[in-house]
Predict the structure.
Amino acid sequence: MVRKTTKEKVMDYIAYFFIYSFLGWIIETIYAFIIHGDFVKRGFLFGPICPIYGFGAVILLLVTKKMYGKPFQKFLIATVLFTVFEYLVSLIFEEIFGLRWWDYSNDFLNIQGRVSLMYTIFWGLIGLILLEKLHPLIEDFIQKVEVKIKTNAKLMIVYVLLGILILDFVLSSLKYLNIF
C-alpha cells in the first residue's frame, strides 16, 4: 500500500463524506417510499444527499481508525456516536430553523423525540455494517479510481463538489429561514 499525503487523505475523507451522504439519502428515500408509498423529498438540502450520514460516517471512520477485530466495541461506539450526533443535529436544526426533520416521540424510550432506543440500536448496526462490510469496499473503490485520475483533476472535483454543497446549503438555509 502506498503512503498517502495529508492532502490525499483529506480528499479521501471528502469523497467518503459525499458517498455516505448520497447513500444516506438513498436509505432515507427508500424508507420514506415504503412508509408513504411514493417519493418524498428527504433531508435538508435540495440535492440528493443527507450530510448527517456523511458527517456521521466520517466521524465514525476517524474514531475507529485503529480498531481491528473488535466488532462489539465498534457497535457500541457507533451506537453512542450516532445517537449523540443525531440528538445534537436535531437540537441545532430546531433552534436555527424552528423545524424538526424527524420525531421519535411515539417510540419507546425516546429523549425529547430526537432519539429513541429503536433508532439507537439501528444506528449501531448500520455503523457496524459500514465499518465491517461497506467501507472496505468503498475504500478499495476509491483507491482504484484515484490512481486513474491526476491530482489536479481530483482537486478540481473536490472543489466543485464542495462548492455545490455550500451553494445548496446556503439556498436551503434561506428557504427554511423563509428568506427565499
In short: The chain has a mean pLDDT of 92. The radius of gyration is 17 Å.
